[in-house]
What does this fold into?
Amino acid sequence: MRLGPTPPTAPASRGPRHAFCAQWDGMIAIVLAVGVVLMACACSAGSTSQPAPASSPRVADPLPGTKLSLEQLRGQMFHVSAGRRLKPSSWPNGAKVAVGLSFDVDNATAALSTGTLDYEILSRGEYGAVDGVPRLLRLLERHRVPASFFIPAVSAALHPEMIKEILAAQAPSSSARVHEVGVHGWIHERLPLLNDEKEEQRLLDQSLELLTTMVGARPVGYRAPSWKFSGWTLEQVKAAGFLYDSSLMASDDPYELLLDGKPTGIIELPIERILDDFPYFGGNADGSNPSLTAVYEIFQSEFDVAYDEGGLYLLTMHPHIIGHRSRVAMLDRLIQYMKGKPGVWFATHEQIARHVKAQTNRLLSSEGR
It folds into this structure.
């Protein structure tokens, strides 16, 4: 007997028709196999490129205003707007013009707010605390003129010696402080970019609390970081009880701010980019503007017209920008020029706002309102 598997039995022949069908089935199988291989190759090749998104991202409308009604546009335009003109009929002691020198003591906070840890940039900001503020305080002391310092709370916390130096200045034969400290955000956050009502409120509350503790008095003036309001800023500033704001540009002279067309009681002491050191020496200029004379002429010309009109002259500067030697020399020259004119009142923004408010109240009282 033979052990092992039984050999397969040869299939019986089924005729020529079956052979043709078998051949046809084989050809179909080959075609299908080739198709599968080609599809696999195509998928493999396609995997090296970016897969097509499930759905195309929606592109923001670049001109949304074109689709709004006039009523909607009015609502947007006048959510925050200019109300009564508050230019005084006179300044204290018969002065012809009020001059408010202000310094936004940002230092490195704008970079820190965005997480920019480039120490070349951070050191430029630190210059404001190390050399800028002390040099400017010496200049102001020499000329016996006051100034307003708008300070992000983090800037004050990181360099507390600045606050002490600012507050140390005293008026001649008086214990009264010469300079003012105002609110300028928590860490120079851009409020429209933050775009969060509760977070904005939290940062404002923190700023007020910290600066009040460090200064020993609650600040009465507000200047938005980067001069940018969100849709909630004015309402929060009003609720916080600020006397004035100095962030907007609807006039050269003081005016009352309106919120959705209603008076807020907040005095706006307007600023302007052409009366700011940053566009000329910072930002995109990055210190590349060598012409101090050209900048001086703009600053002086603006003062001359304000003087002739009996108006307000506000100059905004930054210690880490204007505090460099050649630029402080330019500011020195400008202050000397302004002091050379009769009837120039140098004051803090708070003093200017209080004078404006007092004169406005007297006017309303005389009108029976």
Remarks:
- The longest helix spans residues 16-46.
- Residues 1-24, 27-34, 36-48 have pLDDT under 50 and may be disordered.
- The chain has one domain: 96-362.
